[in-house]
Amino acid sequence: MFLNHVCENHELILCDHIINESYEVANKRFPSKISVLDTLFAKLRYELVPAPRTGNIHMQDIKDQPILNAALSYGVDILITGDKHFLELDLEVPQIIRPSEYKENFIDSSI
Fold it and tell me: Which of 20, 36, 70, 109 is least surrounded by Cβ atoms within 10 Å, i.e. has the fewest?
């Protein structure tokens, strides 16, 4: 329901770094489930953008830096994450929120 709501009500933007990282994690933790990830990305409606390796705002976790760079470069309004390194950033745009905050502010209010 969560992902459906995002895709139906917003333009979903994913960077190549997120896609690659998803496959790396799945391959390490759930190698038998790679086909599920293939199906998910094939069915999702999203814009795929490259993740710049450098940017003006720096994060404590440099592995996530390309994701922030992509969000800033492509004018993302909302970044939904549970990653504490993103949540520690004090940015107006993009607004960085937890999935629970998205659900509370966007899904529950539309019911």
Answer: 109
Helix (H, G, I), strand (E, B) or coil at 37: helix
- φ, ψ of residue 76 in degrees (nearest 5): -65, 135
3-class DSSP state of 13: strand
Cβ-based burial of 8 (10 A; exposed 0-12, middle 13-18, buried ≥19): exposed
Are 59 and 69 spatial neighbours (Cβ–Cβ below 8 Å)? Answer: no
* Amino acid at site 44: L
How far, rounded to the nearest angstrom, does the alpha carbon of residue 24 sit from its chain's CA centroid? Answer: 15
User: Are β-strands 47-49 and 13-15 bridged in parallel, bridged antiparallel, or unpaired?
Assistant: parallel
Is the alpha carbon torsion for 5, 100, 50, 57 positive or negative? positive
Q: For 19-56, how does the pLDDT look when each residue is reduced to its tens digit (9 = 90+)?
A: 999 999 999 999 999 999 999 999 999 999 999 999 99
pTM of the model: 0.88
Instruction: Give the C-alpha separation, 81 to 96, whole Å.
Output: 7
Structure tokens belonging to residue 26: 């799945």
